[in-house]
Protein 1
Amino acid sequence: MKSLTNRKKVVSDKPMTFTEKLYLWAIAKGMMVTFKHMLRKRKTIKYPEEVRVFAPVYRGMHVLKRDEEGRENCTACGLCAVACPAEAITMVAGERQKGEEKLYREEKYAETYEINMLRCIFCGLCEEACPKEAVFLTDRIVPTEFERNDFIYGKDKLVEPLDHRIDITKRQHTGKRSKI
Amino acid sequence: MDTGLLIEKSVLVVILFLVSLGIAAYSTYFERKLAAWIQDRVGPDRAGPFGILQPIADGTKMFLKEDFIPKNADKWLFIIGPGISMFTALITSAIIPWGTDLELFGRTISLQVTDFNIGILYLFAVLSISVYGIMIGGWASNNKYSLYGAIRASSQMISYELAMGISAITIILMSGSLSLSEIVEKQHGMNWNIFYQPVAFLVFFVCSLAETNRAPFDLPECENELIGGYHTEYSSMKLGLFLFAEYIAMFISSAIMAIMFFGGYNFPGMDAFSGNTLAILSVLAFFTKTFIMIFVFMWIRWTIPRFRFDQLMHLGWKVLIPIAIVNMLITGLVIALNQGWFN
């Protein structure tokens, strides 16, 4: 059959010649290969010291966003939990009391909001499901822990601090998201 | 008996012991680094700068592990096994001439613990005993994998000791002596045996790989067939002794090869120096050669895949021994012709 790629090789099992049987030449060639690799530049990224450059749409640890006035966007509708294929998200809704208007944007808010980072597969469906632009995946990495319980992230770890806003403008932009 | 001699030999023995252990420890580090480099990795670099404290961390780990003896193991043999391995690996260094004579405190100190006139015979005797450590350890473990490892070690040792001995005979023929110090002196300057006996060197080198159970002949312990082979059941420092003994054996056989084929402590242009300068330079030359040999040992380990056992036997009995015998006969013939036996 005619080869389409010109990469076809005819296999033969003809007996080895004497020099081939000595194997010395083959061994020398193999050792040169390993020697060349010894002198190559290492491609290792030594993680804690150096960090790999992430893609702009990298999906890492979640953040619960606040709006421009610093009020939490999340209204505990539960759509992210429904969308989550790994069942990683749980929440308890609460009603906003008088005097809490500075804290929560709408009358309903999440009293607790937990993401189990061991279950999470970082697919980003919660982010797509969110109608309130509250939950986003960021380019931060979930750090390692010694206990399984420590991977269940509550609001203390997820809600962005007021004095340290997290930039999500690099995420796929829908056009209506706030810049902060 | 001369007290000075006693002190000087004791000091030398202690230094040799520490140097052997240190080199073995740092061979493990270097081996891991080299393996990493060959595989385009970085290797251990967390313990200390460039990871140079890694062997100490490994050693500490070995000491702190639980020392476990299996219920059905033969307790005494189980303990003796690694001891024999370590002991035989260490006592070989006694006959190695490390350098020319040193002059200190008005005494001439020979850098060789003992100058046996049958040094090579002693060497081969100790090498043969060293397999007992593996054999006894493997047998006493009462485990099929350990036993397989032990059987493989002993049959491998028998097969390769022959070719090794015969190729060593060519060197003995060339220098006319069994003493290692005389073999070294015969190779003064650049007059090294490797230039006269490349085939013997090749055979000797391959056999050394097999004798020290290094890849590609590491069948007694091959990890992926025998899950560790003879040291499957060992833990803690007993395992540490086995692994250490392997590295010390590698160091010693590198030294032996440097002596027999690469002129030991001789280096080109050594006549320009004398006294203590020469002694120090000769020791440096000797260690350089030894380290290059160790490097080649490791380089081969990370290049060549392991032999199958029948291939190992084929290579030993049907290839290396005939080559060694023919080489020995030709050497003998040439020496006889040179000395005018047939006139």
Protein 2
Amino acid sequence: MYFTSSAFVLFLVVVLTGYYVSPGRFRPVWLLFANSFFCVASGWAGTACVAATCLTTWYAGKRMDRLSKSLAARLADADLVSSEAKALRRRTKEQKRLWLLLGVCVNVGILAVTKYSGFFAQNLNAMARVLGLSFTASGFDFALTLGISFYTFKALSYMTDLYRGKKTEAAGSLVQVALFVSFFPELVQGPISRYCDLSPGLFAGRIPCRDEFCAGVQRILFGFFKKLVVADRLLPAVVILTKSPDEFKGAYVLLTMWFYAVVLFADFTGGIDIAVGVAKLFGIDVTENFNRPFYSKSIAEYWRRWHITMGAWFKDYLFYPLSASSAMLKLIKPSKRIFGKGVGVRIPVYIVTTVLWFTTGLWHGASWNFIVWGLTNGAIIIVSQELSPLYKRFHARFAFSETPVYGAFQIVRTFCLMSFIRVFDIYAGVGVTLGAYASVFADFGREGFAARSVLDLGLSVSDCVVVALGVCVMISAGLWTRRAAYKGTSLTARVCLCFLLFLATTVFGCYGIGYDAKQFIYNRF
Amino acid sequence: MDELIAVLREQRPDIDFATQKNLVDDEVLDSFDIISIIALISEHFGVTIPPEEIIPENFNSAESLHELIVSLLDE
Amino acid sequence: MKRLCICVATIAFVICFLSAQRLLAPKYMESLHEGALTAEYYDDEKDNDVLFIGDCEVYENFSPAELWKAYGITSYIRGGPQQLIWQSYYLLLDALRYETPDVVVFNVLAMKYDAPQSEAYNRLNLDGMRLSRAKLGAILASMTPEETVLSYIFPIFRYHDRWNALTSEDLKYFAASESVSHSGYYMRNDVKPANIVPEGPKLADYRFGENSYKYLDKITALCESKGIDLLLVKAPTIYPHWYPQWDEQIRDYADEHRLRFVNFLERAEEAGIDFDTDTYDGGLHLNRRGAEKLTDFLGKLLAEDYGLEDRRTDAAVAAIWREKTRDYERMAEAQLRELDEYGEIRTFTY
């Protein structure tokens, strides 16, 4: 069930009505029922995966919780010697770690089998061919419509937090864990919420106040606007551009980059707007996933503002644990000896950074495109980290680096750089993408541009005007939300805005007969 | 405490660690700084900060970091 | 104050929404006139002795104006292009909300379609219906898989794409439409003889579908419950092919339900229809001359066998129909003049 299908709108109306009329304590159960329905409507294979994740996550959490409780009880009642208490703590921790490992392995296993086995088999076969072995492996081919990468990460964060005993102290019941993992607005494309952030709202069964409700509707409508008016109108052009990279060269590659930046932004943030807005209608606050990312001044900053919940997840559960591990800390000394005092300290961190971006790439999709894309991001971040003293000196030397013009330059630079590497996502392969890069320089000029016409992209003049206006609306919305004033927007203004968005989306959106309810680009990840 | 501030200065000489109270929340320190600080602390104090303690609250000020180190040394 | 602002905004929104919807919906005034037929019924006088339902074989082949002129019988045609039998049923149900005729004439060609056919034809038949239970029933019975009920209730969800295809027609007929039919009759004065009559292709199965029978039963039952005589007809157009096997089934049905079935194909000669001069598209549809001949023939049958009175002496009714026949004749003259002058018809609305 796609967010922009009429089936989803109908589903939402029914679920909302049920939620509002049922007594408070039944509301979470009703939501769980809605989640199940949402899963089943998307197919049984996906439902089975979600159910398996819910069950294993709940059970691992329960066992860890039991261990913590018995530890607390024993620490409280007996007058233990401190060394005994220490030993007890350590033992409990080890037992908890066992359950955590089990839970993580099962869930990562499900993810690996469903999403990566095909890719793994493909690479294995390629390797066998190179080595001259007669050997073929085949992976499982599941067409999963639900965002398995998203809910698996939610489940992993829940178990890890419980193990650490920091953010989440008590385990949830089966209903609670299942409700958290399968929360339907987040099921397809995130955000990747944490149990501690989402659960209070999720289990409260609260009805939002009128202003909140209106804000939720506004958010949903803006999501529809971005997706239907901008993304779906421009997407066919991007598909045409990337399907025939031999014909659309030079300047067209730049066009592809910018078009794709607009499409992906409109599509992904639009989907998140719908998810956040829908959750708001149920009185639930969902962690924000974007903070006007295209206003970032560096790649590192961009990744703190784009897909925030995923970046935070990788930082908390992969980057910090790995780089602060004793193995990595031990590596500092020898690395210092070899590379010198400055870089030597940072080398272990860079190794972890590389691992992190490899994983991030892989998380986005089971193909080398994404892996190369991830590693490119990592490389740029490492290089700019190494160059940062140089930048600082440069900024200190020249006064203009403080001016808004220079800030604007940084924003444009970051946008272009990100657009440049992002096309790894959409060209057919790594080689094709590199070829496209080369052609930007080789075929730039009139001939490359004249080889095909802009009219071949399937965009009419009026389509271009609508997309341009849509982009203007998105930019102004970005500027508007930057000012804190928008939070105090009156109800009347919100209502008017809702009406305008509704009319604009109704007339200018791409939907209905003649248009497929296109998948959100992001929900395959 | 003074020793800690000296260690922190080593990583970021441009910051006044004695007065800043929102090092992480205000994005004064990025994740590279945090990891470097963890490495330096392990070197100087022989304390390994476990992943669950790498949270903004513990790194927002030199004081909270100091408290963390003390509690870890106690264990 | 706040409440007032929101009220004003809501009213403004509703006005904008409905205006946009009106603007974007096709008007069917300058082309595809058949799409305007369904809606015209509501503006007409609703005091008819006879109501026709069915596909193009009714709205091109029978002329209510002629029926009045020759027999003083008032009638209206609720026909539509490829009107499917469930649409005929629901349009009849809809019409019965406003009037109860003495006779309903149903053209049986639609029996050949057992399932929803085309989205476009659904739209041409149903968009003009006023919102009612009958309309909802018609929508649910007609929808093809990719359609939604919502887009019938609010056609803007179907036609929103037309924002970049709007023409002067959309502005000109924004506020009010003109008439394209004469009591549901779609007039054509041109002539194109039926030279070659294509053979009907062999069918795998000549039996009418269950769904078709279900709605024929419904029409029969509805007429019976309202005391209306149902007359089944097959218009004398020679293409699409009418198979003897079909004819037999309808005859059986008529016998079983004590209905009358007239196959005008067999009686075209008797009615005086000449396929060299009386059809405008090679035998698919009759032109005005052919329609008038056929109407004369049917009128005799209605007057004699169904006892429909001559109402030309009723001054009030006569006044209304005087105007109707005047419009009818004016358009006929205009079309003939245009055929002389340009070789083609340009006037379809009045």
Protein 3
Amino acid sequence: MTTEATTVPEGSTRSGAGPLGRVRDRAQLGLCAALAVAGVVVIVDASRLGPVTSSNDPIGPKAMPFLVGGLLLLVSVLYAVDVLRGGVGEAEEGEDVELGQGADWKTVSILAGAFVLNALLIEPLGWVISGALLFALSAFALGNRHHVRGLAVGIAMSLATFYAFAIGLGVNLPAGILQGIL
Amino acid sequence: MDNLNALLGGFADVITPTNLLIALLGVTVGTAVGVLPGIGPAMTVALLLPVTYGLPVEQSLILFGGIFYGGMYGGSTTSILLNTPGESSSVVTALEGNKMAKSGRAAQALATSAIGSFVAGTVATALLVFVMPEVASFAVTLGAPEFLAIILVAFVGTSMILGSSRVRGFAALLIGLALGLVGTDFVTGQQRLTFGSPFLADNIDVVVIAVGIFAVGEALWVAAHLRRKAGTVIPVGRPWMSKEDWGRSWKPWLRGTALGFPFGAIPAGGAEIPTFLSYLTERKLTKHPEEFGHGAIEGVAGPEAANNASAAGTMVPLLALGLPTNATAAIIIAAITSYGIEPGPLLLVKQPDLVWMLIASLFIGNVLLLVLNLPLAPAWAKLLRIPRPYLYAGILFFASMGAYAVNAQPFDLFLLLVLGGIGFAMRRFGVPVLPLIVGAILGPLVERKARQALQLTGGDASGLVGGPVAWVCYAFIAVVLLWPLVARLLRRGSGGDDDHSGDGDGDRPSPAAEPSRPVASEGAIR
């Protein structure tokens, strides 16, 4: 593949550098470790299940987790082998994605913060307020500098969704402190 | 004949003023959201799930039929006018479609894609009417071991055949299976992987998984790499085609349909392979080979038809077996399940009205799309200019709303963020997301079937082997698993010296990866 062709020379110059010489994206090994940890968690969790088997259910609830956990361990090893042999996954492209420079962690952290804030505030303050904040904060994190307009759009959207879904269609969205006003 | 009568009954159910209005709403909203950059059909359906919560199941299925086809149509508009397609199946459309648009033939590209989608969608949905009941009545006769084997084929198909790396696909499948384990065991009532949390005891809702992985994961991923300057949108008038364009389009439409439907209908199909095959076919058969690479209309007509026909084809395993084979189908399964309806071979027996109404609404949605989209194309094109901060903030907003509305508990929002983090990591490392969703949905089912199968033999492993259908399935799986070995032997036998063999089993060249070469190579140099 073209990708291979463009990156292989880089890898091959490093091939004599040591055991990790052919690894092109070392963070991938972290992913392998995470898969292995997940496998261990699944197996440990399954092993504390009571030994409930009956004639109705000869294999019981433990077999599937043991299988999945074992396969997770196996795939973490196979994945690591693939990475050590120079395999690399292609990061996903998209209309608005510009790969090339590293990830913008600041934006991602503000987004995650806005997300957590919404989760904490949705029941005490209600969806209209928490949703509007979520929208305005996320837009800010993504580079919107019209703060008032961002907040106005957020309030309009949360009001519209609240009336359309919660009141119109009976979807579960909390009114919070605005109970009785909306 | 029975099928046709049943279908007419389905039409009679759909054609009421309210239901037609709902169908119209479905195609309009589906197209609008599908056009938005960064939102493919699967995410469209996932984000619009909450819209259906308040509706009765019949109307929500009509809405889904519209959203499903509308989202697909919207996606191809984006790839023609903006290049860089939203999902892998429209990669091929972008290839010639965007070239056409750049050379001033955007209107014709959109027209051949819209009319081709209509033709393919209608023909393929008609095929669905005849094929699906046959498959379903055959599937009803299958026992637990056979069904288990078919699900395993779907696992192998989605994780190892689609996508470019087997080990990454398999890893995604296993994460999905692990997520599917979380909750209370359905036989013994024991808690697995709940870590003592009462919120997890009730299993993780598939809607939360789908929204987290697709919508939140995508929004976070794009946020981390947001293009500072939005891509150039090619302005477009009302789509139209000249007589010559019609003459060059109709055969590719039909050939694309013929390629797309069967690939969609088998449990290991997908849209990438047929769209690419259709592109190759048209390039070979065209009378204008010099235009390929510079915007040949056949190269848009064929793959677009193949894409739509394969989408209609995925309805066969979806309705007849309860097996989702693409991301959109996976979310439709989740939606159907949330109404307490069990998808599977008995669906057609237990809920025939519902199934035929869904199919009828696919036909109607298709017609509405054609009527609606030819005149509205310029309006859709304007959606491509939406400011990106608002677009992705909106995705997070609707994702949170949808995930909260499932169970009305803030815990799901934290879960959503964690799943979004997993979705982010998968995009970062090039791990496909479809196997995860399929694993999470079918994991509990596969366990149930395996335990049923073993129950019949009192735990003896022979219970898993079953009859001829299962043997065929296991033979297929064995071939797929052993393929890299076989391929290497063949290569050695023919004396070929493909220097990629050192890349390990993980890098199986896939036909679908081919057309993305020019795009992919830019990003890969990091």
